[in-house]
Predict the structure.
Amino acid sequence: MEFPIEGSCQCGQASYKLYEKPQMVLACHCTECQKLSTSPFSVTAVIASTAIEVKGELKEWSRYADSGNRNNAKFCPACGNRIYHYNPDNSGTIKLKLKPVDLANDGVFTPSAHVWVCEKVGWYQIPDGIKVFEKQPKY
Ligand SMILES: [Zn+2]
Ligand SMILES: [Zn+2]
């Protein structure tokens, strides 16, 4: 793995440099994530707020998660691509939305668990040997 890892939104206006390995990577199958990612699930990396540097203009949207926690989303106002989520009441970590990484860093964002599989689409099969949670696990 080579750090920093760089990533950007679809149009390139917003970009980031990631300086550390994610603390945890989750694939989430909830309907919110399906809408967000326009795919069967979204992949989110939990990262220490101090381990990432984001550049470019970002807009913000906020909603309440099932847990009652606030979930604020940062996205590129030009292309609409989601960059990360964070809880304004707990600023120690952010939840980076998966962006393609170069081959040298392939695997950095491989999910270690799949969550909210109660809402998983029928045609996607979770690989063997990965932790699975019906809903959101408590950490
Ligand atoms: Zn953009
Ligand atoms: Zn989700």
Q: What stands out?
A: The first strand starts at residue 5 and ends at 8. The chain has a mean pLDDT of 93. The first helix runs from residue 31 to 37. Helices lie at 31-37.
